[in-house]
Specification:
This protein has 79 residues and is mainly α. It has three helices and two strands. Strands 1-2 form a two-stranded parallel ribbon. The two termini are 16 Å apart.
Length: 79
């Protein structure tokens, strides 16, 4: 069963429909830009067959950015 849908997930919904119709989501690679560190959203993207995600990140110095990247990496490992 697919994870609950979030608001604005039209691309995910279309990919889930393709998947459930027996079409391989890998034949339509999609990258989602501006992703937030949210495990539920990332799970929906993975289920739908999203090819890649690009994290939304403000420009900042390494001491501010690296902890955010570490947290995102931990979230991705749990998805």
């Amino acid at each position: 069963m697919p994870p609950d849908r979030g608001e604005g997930d039209r691309i995910v919904e279309a990919l889930v429909q393709r998947r459930e119709a027996g079409l391989d989501p890998k034949t339509l690679p999609i990258t989602v830009y501006g992703v937030k560190d949210d495990a539920d959203t990332l799970k929906r993207y993975r289920y739908a067959g999203i090819h890649a995600v690009i994290l939304a990140l403000k420009a900042a110095k390494a001491d501010e950015t690296l902890p955010i990247l570490d947290k995102f990496a931990a979230t991705m490992r749990g998805v």
